[in-house]
Amino acid sequence: MALSLTILGSNSALPTSDRYPTAQILRVSERFFLIDCGEGTQMQLRRNKVNFNKISQIFLSHLHGDHIFGLMGLISTFGLLGRRNALHIHAHEDLKGLLEPHLNYFCTDLPYNIEFHDLTYDEPTIIYEDKKVTVESFPLSHRVPTCGFLFKEKPKQANIRKEAIKKYDLKVREIVAIKAGETFIGEDGNPVPPEELVIPAPKPLSYAFCSDTRYYRRVIPIIKGVDILYHEATFAHELKDLAKRTSHTTAKQAATIARDAEVGQLLLGHFSSRYKDLTPLLKEAKAVFDNAILVRDNEMYVLE
Amino acid sequence: MALSLTILGSNSALPTSDRYPTAQILRVSERFFLIDCGEGTQMQLRRNKVNFNKISQIFLSHLHGDHIFGLMGLISTFGLLGRRNALHIHAHEDLKGLLEPHLNYFCTDLPYNIEFHDLTYDEPTIIYEDKKVTVESFPLSHRVPTCGFLFKEKPKQANIRKEAIKKYDLKVREIVAIKAGETFIGEDGNPVPPEELVIPAPKPLSYAFCSDTRYYRRVIPIIKGVDILYHEATFAHELKDLAKRTSHTTAKQAATIARDAEVGQLLLGHFSSRYKDLTPLLKEAKAVFDNAILVRDNEMYVLE
User: pLDDT (tens digit, 9 = 90+) per residue, B174-196?
Assistant: First the structure.
């Protein structure tokens, strides 16, 4: 699978026994990114058999307890397991000062380093990049400074066709050039059509995470065309005034964002615990944007 | 039921998906006491349908993360649910200073008060008392200051027999006196045998919690004869050197404490996550003290 999202927690501030507070694991291009870290994250990671050592980057959208109270337990457990590689935490600048007294008290002699990276809240910013993936933060609008995150695979190279190597007796430097998109001239002096030489590169995949936020249309150009959008849908639209007052989004509003941003699929989450039955939220979302689903804890959503 | 213990978490420092870090709810004489508060406690309380408002006293044995990392989430959730009644937290004196910056940041405007009560670690001390129950802390021996807790029902009064009220035409003050144990003289001038007047008071029940600690025989006189003893059994006895080094107890040692303290039943918990199969721990414990069981998360142990 090229991209998968495992929901570790999908509830809003008041967790229930089967909907934990916000946390999720995105796997993309063989990287594992932890997004938010609500209470119980480490147990949910175990439940979903995620290898703890694969997690090196944690992205925390904002400093509300239901998005970070699992952090100390996770850090402590990583230490007890003898982790050596650094852990990078991307979060609001206040986090370090809040965490340090607890780290010094509860996690003496951690065998690995924690590196804090302060988020900014003015404009979209690339906060992580490697050979295959970029991660961008972008401002949301909540009661405290809050970021969404956009994960994008970098454009991939086309794969050379084995039969073309034989047919044209391609040298390594020619293969590299063809994969990079250069025109190849055959012995007859004419360009060879690319489709005869290469299997086109798979489309780079992308995922956007928007939680928590009021209905905030400024994200639309930023997340335009992503394959999967996770958007908070704390309330049904009949509670739109409460949503506004608490800086949250209704399911209908989340679907409107998804439609106008022309995303591939909408995952709805961060539900208020008042809803025993979430189908009204799904129904109102699907009326606006059909390819919408309600996430469930411990489910994996895969994009091939 | 007169006394019940619900296990919210029974693992040691590294929780798994089905064994959470230490927390338990003791219900005795209609009081609900929370003992330790590992990560995930609030979700486990919901899973076990415990009414949050019934919890007013929290007893924290020591300040290791696996015994307290659920506290912030619980406090925050109590606030979001509009709790009004004070929450009493009995813990090491350092807790308040550690928690306050987080409370000020994450739990502004809590609608209830938190009262911190500092534990002492020199000798058994009554730390809570009401009409029906006393709670006593007593020193354990671990890597940091640690207390066990002893919960005891106060002696109850006998119940007067309805037929005796009729037969002897008892007045209210006579009933009160008989229930308090005074001798009642019949019309013939002779004392009436108590068994003709009263149904004897049920025996007061008691529960002792011992986690975490090295094998520590000084607790024996303190917990002598309790109905239920929960004792940590982090390791099997073949790892007794590791147990000693880490200030933990083996299952065999826990059973030895139970036998020598002549307790009614031994509940073993706080297992190292190295054990997929805990039957060797049970076997070695039962060889010393037969009425021993391994606790499981989300199980309730009842004493009638």
Answer: 999 998 889 999 888 899 999 89
Residue B106 to residue A64, Cβ atoms within 8 A: yes
Other beta carbons within 10 Å of A197: 23
pLDDT reading at A274 higher than 80? yes
Provide the residue range defining the domain that includes A270: 3-156+202-303
Cα angle B182, B204, B21 (rounded to 5 degrees) comes to: 165
pLDDT (mean) for A277-302: 97
Chain A interface mutation, best of B69, B83, B246, B298, highest count of A Cβ atoms under 10 Å: B69
CA B184 centroid distance within chain: 38
**Closest by Cβ to A40, choosing from B40, B65, B72:** B40
Cα(B179)–Cα(A37) distance, integer angstroms: 57
Number of domains in chain A: 2
Residue of B105, B107, B274 best to disrupt the A interface, most CBs of A under 10 A: B105
Can you give the pTM of this predicted structure?
0.93
Residue of chain B whose Cα is closest to the Cα of A40: B40
* pLDDT tens for each residue of B87-129: 999 999 999 999 999 999 999 889 999 999 999 999 999 999 9
* Alpha-carbon gap, residue B35 to B15, rounded angstroms: 17
Task: Say if residue B177 is in the same domain as residue B282.
Answer: no
Give, as one character, the DSSP assignment of residue B175: H
On whether ipTM exceeds 0.90, the answer is yes
Active site (catalytic) residues of A:
66
Statement to judge: residues A166 and A259 lie in one domain: no
| Cβ atoms B39, A41 nearer than 8 A | no
Q: What is the pLDDT of residues B192-219, one digit of tens each?
A: 999 899 998 889 999 999 999 999 999 9
Q: How many contacts does A have with B, using Cβ atoms within 8 A? A: 89
Which of B173, B199, B225 is the last residue before a domain boundary?
B199
